[in-house]
Amino acid sequence: MFPQHAVTRTVSLKFAGQELRFHLSHALFSSNRIDDGTVLLLKTLAQQKAVPATGAALDAGCGAGPLAVALALHQSGLAVTATDRLALAVAFTSENARLNGAKLTAVTALLLGGEVPAGGWNLIVSNLPAKAGEPVLHDFFPRALSQLAPGGRVAVVVVSSLVAAARLALDECGAVLLYHEETAAYQVFHFGAGHKAPASLPDLFPAVYLRGWMEFSVGKQDLRQKTFFGLPNFDALDYRWQVSEKFLVAIPRKVAALLVWEPGQGQMAAFLASGLSSGATLHLAGNDLLALLASRSAAAASGTQVTALHCVDGLRELPARIGEVQGAVIQVHSHPEVPWVDEVCHALLDLLPPGAPVLLNGTSTDLSRFLEKHKGLRKVQDQKYRGWRSALLVRS
Q1: Does residue 193 share a domain with residue 50?
Q2: The domain containing residue 33 runs over which residues?
Q3: How confident is the model at residue 222 (pLDDT cuts 50, 70, 90)?
Q4: Which of 205, 225, 253 is the last residue of a domain?
Q5: What mean pLDDT do residues 290-309 have?
Q6: Other beta carbons less than 10 A from residue 14's beta carbon
Q7: Quick check: 390 pLDDT over 90?
Q8: Residue 244: its pLDDT value, please?
Q9: Region 48-61 average pLDDT
Q10: The domain spanning residue 348 has which CATH number?
Q11: Are 193 and 102 found together in one domain?
Q12: I want to staple 83 with a disulfide (CB 3.0 to 4.6 A). Which of 114, 199, 290, 388 is the partner?
C-alpha cells in the first residue's frame, strides 16, 4: 500500500508536450520541485531524439520517478524499469506512474544492481547522486556500458563537483561521447560503447561500495567491521552513537529476537549480534537497501542468524512480519511534515512484551516529541549531547 502520509507536495512537469504530475516527499531527494538536473536531462533526451520507441530502458536511482515516468509516457512501446536503493522511492515511482497512467516496473536495487534484460538496455538514464561515493560513481560508467544492448545509449546528469570524475571515468572505460551539454550547476553526458572491450567488473556489493575497516568499542568489548561508501559513520562514530553507546548494554542478548531499525553501517547491529544466543535472530529493518546490506554483513560476521527487512511504510509493517522481539534499537530519521511519532509508539507496543527495553536515538527535537507521547513505554534514562538525544525505555 502506498504511504500517502509521506506526500508533502504535488508538482507539475512538462515533457514532450505532456503535462505530468508528481507526488513528492521530504523523505526523498528534491522534495519541493523536480530538480533542475532532471529537467535538463529530459530536455536533452527529447532534443536528441534519444528515447527509443521499443526495447528496454532503465532509470537508475529513480527517486520519485520523474525520468522513468516521462520515458514510459513518451514511448508507450518502451519497457521502462526504475530502480532505487530506497524502498520509499520505489513506492513513490510506482504511485507516480499510476497517477500519470504510465506503465513501468519499479524495483529496489543498488545503482545498476538490478536484473539486466537478456538483450541489454537500449537506454540507461540517471541523475547521478552526488553523495554516492566516488568509487561507486567511477564504477557506474563501465558497468552501464557492459549492460547496454548493441547501439544502446547512456544519458546522465551530474552536478558540477562530479564533472572531473565523470570525464575521467568516461575516458578510462573507452566510452564514445554522443552529446554533451552544460549549465552553471550541471552537465549532461550521452555516451555509448566504443571499440574497447569491457573490463571485468567486480560484484557491486560489497566490492564497489567497500570503504575500509573500523575498530570501535562498546564498554569493554572491542569490535572490528567493514564500512561502506554512501552511509554515515564510515571512519568515525558520530554524536548519535555517542549518546546511545552506554545504553546498548541494557538491551538483553540472551533472548529469542532483537530488532535494529535503520541500522546504518551496522555498528549497533554488530554489537548486539556478537552476544546473541545460538538460534536467536537479529532483525534488521529500514528503508535503505545499502544500510541493510552493510549491517547484515557486520552482524552476520558473528555467526548470528540475521534477517534484513526492506520497509516502505515505516515501523508499522513490522509487527505482522516479525512478530514479537525482546528488545529494540530505533534510530529515528524524521523528515519535515512526515508524521512518525504515533507510528513508532504504536509499533513498539505491538512488537515488545511487557518489560522489554527499547533504545531510541535521534535529534533532541525528535526525541522530545516522542517522549511527550510515549504512553505505554516508561522512560528509564536519557542523555543529550550537541543536539542529539538518546532514551532508554521499557514496555509497561
Answers
A1: yes
A2: 4-205
A3: very high
A4: 205
A5: 94
A6: 11
A7: yes
A8: 96
A9: 98
A10: 3.40.50.150
A11: yes
A12: 114
